[in-house]
Amino acid sequence: MEKHNKTSDFILLGFTDGPYNHRALFLFILVIYTHTWLGNVLLLSAIRLSQRLHKPMYFFLGNLSFLDICFSTVIVPKLLSTVLHGVTFISFFGCFLQLYFFVSLGVTEILLLAVMALDRYLAICNPLHYTSVMNKTVCITLVIGCWVTAALHSFLHSYMALFCLNYCEDRLIHHFFCDMTSLLKLACSSTTANELLIFTEGSMAIIIPFLLVLVSYILIAHAIFKLKTSTNRSKAFSSCSSHLTVICLFYGTIIFMYFRPPSSYSPSYDRIVSLAYTVITPMLNPYIYSLRNKDVKKSLKKSVMQLSSCYKIKESF
Fold first, then answer.
1. Are 44 and 65 within 8 A, CB to CB?
2. Which residues have a Cβ under 8 Å from the Cβ of 104 and sit 6 or more positions away?
3. Which of 8-17, 91-100, 110-119, 188-197 has the lowest mean pLDDT?
4. Which end of the chain has the lower number of beta carbons within 10 A, N or C?
5. What does the pLDDT look like over 59-87, one tens digit per residue?
6. What is the arrangement of strands in the sheet containing 172-173, beginning at the earlier edge strand?
7. Reported pTM
């Protein structure tokens, strides 16, 4: 097969090979994307405007909201175009740029969720030293570390896929975005080095943060069960229940997507699961945190009232 030059476009097939109502699917995704922006922007506004939310946990939550906005924006606009027009062309370098940001933002979320688990561990298991350990400098350093580590991880994988592989005549990507699995299937040169990198370094980027989360919550559960009163146990559990829900949702989709027998792989299945963690999960995160947290709900109401009053003042002028 002939090798493609680096000016050739890829073709995203999206949902063209299934019996989908494309207008309904377009409307469904558009509504979710709108709610993703609305929910996360409101949560960011509440954290910014409310003094009671100027705490490490909400600082990390604000970064998670910003991350969810970016993550969905990398995927959804092209997805909407694919659903609306059937197939969509994406440039060679545009495809790898999308791959880079998809991997970078995804790994950042994995690392950030691990940092949030560590924050909950310190708050529950070591409350006397929590404020001194988890100070502003430490919080900023941890967040910057998450973003930089994920960016370097993504650069390594994207570089290997871009410059170390040759792509053949078949430019059809049986997906709605450029992910690593789809691109490796289009390569006509050996993908052994890329697969080895994914298996080693890529697996570590998922497994190590997951183990940190797991150990943190084992220690948290042990500390909660040691509390004498049910009221204290309930308060301690409620302070980390939202984060635990988000972790289960996020890692659940990752496990269903990437940790399953090769015989179960199918384009239709991959698209449905990918739709869950690229489109639906970023929308659900702010609602999970706002519905299960009294401080966030109060601050959201206050933020909405302030925004509406500002709007009324502008209208009067």
1. yes
2. 150, 151, 153, 154, 155
3. 8-17
4. C
5. 999 999 999 999 999 999 999 988 888 77
6. 88-90, 10-12, 172-173
7. 0.88
